[in-house]
Design brief:
- The protein is an all-beta fold and 175 residues long.
- The protein has no helices and 15 strands.
- A six-stranded mixed β-sheet has the order 5-7-10-14-15-12, with no helix packed on it.
- The two termini are 35 Å apart.
Length: 175
């Protein structure tokens, strides 16, 4: 998605004015650049000591180093079989394409703040996430404190890592 340049120092994006996953750029007085990103309904702001865009072309200056510190991931991975210790280092989406019933018992490689979507992309087999199984390096804690199974359906789970384990954020309350 292309970045949107905002030229007025008084015009900064708000959580409501931005779409999920959108990036926007704002320049304050033509000297300070700020990059805004909406992710999981939260507006994140990144600051740079100089503008990152040149003449509205939406291209970054070649001499600017843009560094993000933290748990930003954008890669994907696909699994087809059960596992207790799936390496999720550097990914944000785990596609499950089950050849047979798949049971996921835990993960490894997750970092604090990392978000992971587990998405079932083939509906001909059951896919189960095991609640607090205790075998993987990083356990999964589900909102109903029980294993959850998608019985031959598309769908999935949204999980967040605290550096040690993964927590289901798919439900604010059980319905």
């Amino acid at each position: 998605m292309p970045l949107k340049q905002i030229t007025s120092s008084r015009v900064h994006p708000t959580r409501r004015s931005m779409k999920e996953g959108e990036f926007r750029f704002a320049m304050t007085g033509g000297k300070v650049g700020r990059l805004f990103h909406k992710f999981s309904s939260i507006l994140h702001e990144f600051w740079a000591g100089e503008p990152l865009l040149v003449d509205g072309s939406n291209r970054m200056r070649p001499k600017v180093n843009f560094r993000i510190t933290g748990a930003l991931a954008s890669a994907t991975k696909t699994i087809t079989a059960s596992a207790d210790n799936i390496d999720v280092s550097g990914i944000n989406t785990l596609f499950v394409d089950p050849a047979a019933a798949v049971v996921i018992g835990g993960f490894t490689g997750g970092v604090n703040g990392q978000e992971l979507r587990v998405v079932v992309i083939d509906d001909d087999q059951n896919v189960t996430l095991e609640h607090a199984e205790g075998v993987g390096d990083q356990d999964i804690y589900l909102h109903i404190s029980l294993d959850e199974t998608l019985d031959s359906h598309y769908g999935g789970w949204n999980l967040v890592c605290n550096g040690s384990d993964w927590y289901d954020e798919s439900h604010a309350r059980h319905v």
